[in-house]
């Protein structure tokens, strides 16, 4: 009863097989309000130096682009995986200095944020994926039960040495 269209079936993807997404996804972390001046003073010279050294693009949210109920600022690190890892280490080290954690073996706390929709993938079936990240990095981790108010993102607290925390952040973003 209905005329059949001629030619090959139309596919939204143009008939190509699915390809993995290989564009680099930015990493984001929270910068406590008391650390903002320490990181962005002198017209963001510290961030520029870190960006020049690592090749990552680093941006700190301002008052206008930070949700009103969030007292922290959001740091976004863009680039290739190694560049983001280097930028993350630079920020973690800066925060550790601010908190007088001078011994590399001292444990500190660092919060990354990820889209809430990514949490099940990060955790993996029966927690296998996240357990692997924890075992490899040596860091401790706590995933926020609720999104950050006013954002579609979930905080993930990482606890450990600077190397452990950055290794965990890198593992989560793989």
Describe this structure in words.
The protein has 174 residues and is of the alpha+beta class. The protein has one domain (27-172): TATA-Binding Protein. It is built from five helices and six strands, in the order βαββαβααββα. It has a six-stranded antiparallel beta sheet, covered by helices on one side. Helix 2 (81-98) packs antiparallel against helix 5. This is K Homology domain-containing protein.
List keywords for this structure.
K Homology domain-containing protein, KH_dom_type_1_sf, 6 strands, alpha+beta, six-stranded antiparallel beta sheet, globular, TATA-Binding Protein, KH_dom_type_1, 5 helices, RNA binding, 174 residues, RNA-binding
Question: How are the elements arranged and paired?
Answer:
Layout: E1 27-31, H1 33-54, E2 57-60, E3 73-78, H2 81-98, E4 108-115, H3 119-123, H4 128-137, E5 140-143, E6 153-160, H5 162-172
Antiparallel strand pairs: 1-3, 1-4, 2-3, 4-6, 5-6
Helix pairs in contact: 1-2, 2-5, 4-5
Strand order of the largest sheet: 2-3-1-4-6-5
Radius of gyration: 20 Å
The structure class reads alpha+beta
Number of helices: 5
- State the name of the first-level CATH class: Alpha Beta
Provide mean pLDDT, rounded: 88
Task: Name the beta content range.
Answer: 15-25%
What are the secondary-structure elements, in order, as H or E?
A: EHEEHEHHEEH
Helix content: 25-40%
Number of strands: 6
Largest sheet: 6 strands, antiparallel
In CATH, the topology is named TATA-Binding Protein
- Taking pLDDT < 50 over at least 5 consecutive residues as the criterion, the unreliable ranges are 16-22
Overall shape: it is globular
Euclidean distance between termini CA atoms: 51 Å
Tally of distinct domains: 1
CATH architecture classification = 2-Layer Sandwich
Pfam family, one: KH_1
Protein name: K Homology domain-containing protein
GO molecular function, one term: RNA binding
Organism: Alexandrium catenella
């Amino acid at each position: 009863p209905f005329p059949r269209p001629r030619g090959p079936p139309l596919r939204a993807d143009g008939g190509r097989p699915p390809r993995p997404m290989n564009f680099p996804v930015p990493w984001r972390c929270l910068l406590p309000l008391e650390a903002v001046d320490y990181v962005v003073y002198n017209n963001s010279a510290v961030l520029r130096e870190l960006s020049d050294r690592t090749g990552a693009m680093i941006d700190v949210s301002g008052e206008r682009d930070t949700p009103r109920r969030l007292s922290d600022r959001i740091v976004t690190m863009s680039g290739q995986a190694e560049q983001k890892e280097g930028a993350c280490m630079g920020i973690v080290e800066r925060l550790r200095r601010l908190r007088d954690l001078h011994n590399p073996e001292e444990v500190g706390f660092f919060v990354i944020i990820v889209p809430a929709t990514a949490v099940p993938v990060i955790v993996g079936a029966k927690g296998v994926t996240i357990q692997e990240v924890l075992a490899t990095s040596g860091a401790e981790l706590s995933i926020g039960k609720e999104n950050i108010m006013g954002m579609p993102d979930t905080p993930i607290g990482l606890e450990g040495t600077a190397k452990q925390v950055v290794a965990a952040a890198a593992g989560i973003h793989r």
